[in-house]
Amino acid sequence: MKVSVFLLMFLWILTVSRGDTDVSCGFMERCILPCSFQVGSDVIITWTHFKTINLLVHSYYDNQDQFGYQDQSYRNRTSLFKDQLSRGTASLQLTGVKVQDEGRYQCFIKAINGEKASFINVKIDAPVQDVNIQQVENRITCSSEGIYPQPELTWSTTPPSNINLLYSTTVQQNEQQLYSISSSLILSPNDTDLLYSCTISTPTNRRRAAWRKLSDEDSSHRLASSVSVGGIMITVVGPILVAAAAVGLCLYLTTKKGQQENNTRRFQKYLSCLPLGSRQAENRSLPSRMKSSASGLVVWNEYDYDLNLGDCLSGESRSIHLSLSDCQHELLSMQTVDLVEMEKSNETVNYPVTSILPTHQLHFSSSGPGGSPRGSSIVPGSVSMPSLSHITSAGNNKPTRAASLPDMKLQSSFEEFTPDLSEDDEGYRFQCSCPGLYQCSVTGLVFDMEGEGDVAYRTVPWNRRLLVQHHKRPAGPLFDIKCQQQSVHQLHLPHCQILPTAGFLAVAHVKDDGVEFITPHKITETHLVINIMGFSGFGIVKDEDSPPDPVRALVLLFYRPPDDPDVTSVLNVLMLPKNVSLRDVQRTRRKLVGDERYIETSPHCKLLPDQVYTLSTAPEDDSVLVQPTEAEFEEDSYDNYFPMFQVFMETKMKHMKLFLRDSSSQSVWERQVCLSSAGQIKSSGSNPPNQKLLDVRSCFIDGTSGPVLNSLLDKLLEKKVLTDSERESADEVKNRRDKARFVIDTVRKKGDAASSEMMEFFCELDPFLCEHLDLM
Q1: Taking the model in full, what pTM does it have?
Q2: Which fold has domain 415-541?
Q3: Which residue has the higher pLDDT, 525 or 480?
Q4: Where is region (Disordered) located (predicted)?
C-alpha cells in the first residue's frame, strides 16, 4: 500500500513539475508525439494513454520493440525512430489517427542514469471540408459531415436584416465519432434579394456557404444561346471551354443596359486572365463530373468548375463555380445571373454550386483559416492550386495565379519568384496581385497570401541574450517582414531538421517589447507553418536541451586565388545549416574579406551538431596545409559566416579533392573541386560575350541594385575596362536604371574582351541574378 501511494505521488510530482506538450493530430493522418531523454544505456521506453483504463501504447526494452502487452487498438499503428534512440529521441509515430486516440499520453523513460516522464495532450482535428446548401420548398438547408470536434452552425444575412431568422439545428455523431451537422432555415416571403450565409466552424477552422434568392425583376433577364459542338456536346467540348463561354456570357449580360459598356470591359479583362493555354500545356484538365437527370438533361455535378478571377474583376481573389443545367444534346441554354459583390473579408471567397439548382439561384462557399481535406497534403486556409509557371525575368515581379480546382492545392504547389533587391542590397521585396502560395528562390520563405500585397523582408541578427533567457537558441535565420496590406495569411519558414516533428521547434516572434514563441500550425519536411496577425521579426528556434539530432547542412567553398607575385592561394570551407540564404552568406563574406570567389559544387550533406569533423585533401603533401585539423559543427551559425577550415596552397593547382569525415572517420562529404576555373563564367552557348550582354540588357537594367552597380563600376575601373572619364560620367547619372544602361552599353561597345570581364565581375557580385540571366 505504501509503495502504491509513493508511486502515485511520484507520478503526480512529475506531472506538475513539467508542463504538458499539446499536439494536434489530423484525423486518419500520421502524427508524431515528441519525447526526449538524456542518452544512457539499457534504456526502457513506455508510452501509455491515460483513459478510464490506462492503455499500453508502445514499449521498448532489451533493444527491441515489445508488443506482447500492447493494447489491440494500437496494433500495427505505432513505431519509434530506432536510429535516433542513441541521440536521445524517443518520439512515437502514430498512424491512422482516430478520434479515440485523443487524450493524455505519458512517455516514461528509464535508463541507467535516471528516469524521466513527459506528458503529451493529443487533440484530434477533422476540419470542416464542404458546406452544402440547398432549397427545399420554403426552407434552406445547410449541412456538413465528417467533423471533429463538435462544430457550431450560425446563420446571417447580407445586408444585415431585422428579420427574425427561424431555424432548427441537429448534430449527430457516427461510429467513428465524427460529427455531422444540419440546419434548416424558414424563408420569409419578404426577404427578396437577401444573401443568406451559413457558417460551420470548429476551434481550428470554419467554412461558409451562402444562398441568394433573386427578385422577380432580376429573374426577367434571360438569354437562350444555341451552341453547336458536332455530336454529343459533353464528349467533344472540353469542360473549361464551356465554363469560359458561360462566365463570359454571364458577365456580359448580367448588368442592366446602362452598365453594358462597363460589363464588356470586365468581360474582356476576365478573359485575358483565363490560363487556358497553360492549363492545356500542363495536361491538367478539369474533371468532367456530369450526370443525366430523369428528363434526359445533362447537369454538372458539384465542384465541376473553380475559375480563379484573381485581380481581374474587383481586385480580390474570387473563384467562381458554375452550375450548368438545361444542356440538351447540342443546345445549351444558359440563365443569366447577377454577380453578387461580397463584402471584403480576410477570407478567400469562392462560389461553388450544387448539382441541380432552382432557376436564378447562386450558391457560394468560402473557407476560413485552417480548412483542409483529410488524407492529402493540403495547405490550410485556401482551396486554389496555383499555376506551376515560374517567373522568368527580373522585371516580372508580380506573380499571378492560374485557374484552379477546389481542394487540390498541394503542399508543394507554389509559385517561385526571384525577389527585387532593396537599394542597400540587403533586403528583398515581393509583390503579388492574387492569393496563393509564393516561394522566394533566395531565402526559401513561402508566403501564403490572402490577396494583393507588397512584402518587404530581410535577414537581421538574433538577440541571443534574449533567447538564452527563455532557454532557446536559433534554428534558422531571423527575418524582419513587413506587409502594408496585412495580406500574409500564413508564413512558411524553412528548417533544416531531419526529424522536424521532434517537438523542440517553435517560431520566435521578436517585437520591440520582447519576444513570444509561436507553436507551429503545421510542420512539413522542409518548413514550419504559422498563422500570423502582425509583422516584425520571425525565426525558428529550438529548446536548449533538445537532443543533437542530425540536420541537413551545406559545405560552402570560397576561393581566394593568388595575387602575383605571391603564389599562395586560400580555400575557405564553411559548414552551415541548410536553411541559410546563400546570397546573404556571399554578401556577408564580401563585407568581411573582400574579393573571393564562390566555388559552385554540390554542398549538401547531413551533419551532427557539436560533433567534431576533420578535413583532408588529395593531393596531401607539404604544399597543402589545412587549418585547423578539426572543428565542431555549430548548427546555430546564422549571423557570422566564418570558415571552419582553411586550406592553404603554396603551388598553383587545377584540381583538388576534399574529404569531410566525422569522429569515427566516416566520410560525410567529399567532392572534386576545380580551382583553375573558380569563379569564371561558364559557356552558355556560342554567342560572343558582347551579344550575351545585349541579350540580357533589359533584365540587367531592371534587376541590378545600386550597391552592386557601384561595386561593378569600381572593378571595371580597377581592371581598366572603363576609363576615369567614363567612371565620372557614370557617377553623374543619378537614376539607377539610367546608370545601369550607361554601364552595359559602354562596355558592350568595347568588344568581347571587355564584355567577358564585365560578366565575370558581375557574376562575382550578384551570382543569383547572373545565374537567373544564364550568364553562369
Answers
A1: 0.45
A2: Chondroitinase Ac; Chain A, domain 3 (2.60.220)
A3: 480
A4: 362-382
